[in-house]
Amino acid sequence: MNAVPNARPDAAATVATAISTTSAQVTVKSAEGMRDLGRRLAALLRPGDLLLLTGELGAGKTTLTRGLGEGLGVRGAVTSPTFVIARAHPPLGDGPALVHVDAYRLNGGLDEMEDLDLDVSLPESVIVVEWGDGKVEELSEDRLHIVIERAEGADGLALDEADDVRTVTLAGVGPRWAGVDLTALA
Ligand SMILES: Nc1ncnc2c1ncn2[C@@H]1O[C@H](COP(=O)(O)OP(=O)(O)O)[C@@H](O)[C@H]1O
Ligand SMILES: [Mg+2]
């Protein structure tokens, strides 16, 4: 860490805290654990939040989103969209809607998703985009990037007994996430 001349001694510590709490890593041992992480993450969310989920097929992106839907208290079960690109789940109570997008088949970025009007729904929704990295960043300067990886052994191969273990890395971008303690999710 660089020392800041003339700064009060606690200033550097405050900055360091702000930076370190913008990202976190969580080990998730089961599908139910992934849902639970979604439910707990939902408690931190508010209208206008954009989440980008990265991870190979079967990593657990939809499972995490299912927990988000349960935590937010929205209508309809979150499923893997087969033909649908996006599904809006309206709130059952006072919370935000959940808009769940699967951008797997979309390569053209937001232009290709123009019909979805994501920019229109974002202010009153939480938008979760599977495979959204590199495609929907323009929607907001504030984003939560979530990367889900299967646990690997020291040799780089998937561990047999630990097949169900996932490592979830959350990283907030923009002022919205600067003061949020994501490590509370671990
Ligand atoms: N730790 C775990 N976290 C998430 N899913 C898990 C885990 N262990 C096993 N699974 C299983 O892996 C699959 C994940 O599927 P899904 O959530 O649809 O992935 P994606 O949307 O990333 O393609 C589900 O069948 C789920 O039950
Ligand atoms: Mg999926």
UniProtKB/TrEMBL annotation:
<dbReference type="GO" id="GO:0002949">
    <property type="term" value="P:tRNA threonylcarbamoyladenosine modification"/>
</dbReference>
<comment type="similarity">
    <text>Belongs to the TsaE family.</text>
</comment>
<dbReference type="GO" id="GO:0046872">
    <property type="term" value="F:metal ion binding"/>
</dbReference>
<keyword id="KW-0460">Magnesium</keyword>
<dbReference type="InterPro" id="IPR003442">
    <property type="entry name" value="T6A_TsaE"/>
</dbReference>
<comment type="function">
    <text>Required for the formation of a threonylcarbamoyl group on adenosine at position 37 (t(6)A37) in tRNAs that read codons beginning with adenine. Is involved in the transfer of the threonylcarbamoyl moiety of threonylcarbamoyl-AMP (TC-AMP) to the N6 group of A37, together with TsaD and TsaB. TsaE seems to play an indirect role in the t(6)A biosynthesis pathway, possibly in regulating the core enzymatic function of TsaD.</text>
</comment>
<keyword id="KW-0819">tRNA processing</keyword>
<keyword id="KW-0547">Nucleotide-binding</keyword>
<keyword id="KW-0479">Metal-binding</keyword>
<keyword id="KW-0067">ATP-binding</keyword>
<dbReference type="GO" id="GO:0005524">
    <property type="term" value="F:ATP binding"/>
</dbReference>
<dbReference type="InterPro" id="IPR027417">
    <property type="entry name" value="P-loop_NTPase"/>
</dbReference>
<dbReference type="Pfam" id="PF02367">
    <property type="entry name" value="TsaE"/>
</dbReference>
<protein>
    <recommendedName>
        <fullName>tRNA threonylcarbamoyladenosine biosynthesis protein TsaE</fullName>
    </recommendedName>
</protein>
<keyword id="KW-0963">Cytoplasm</keyword>
<dbReference type="GO" id="GO:0005737">
    <property type="term" value="C:cytoplasm"/>
</dbReference>
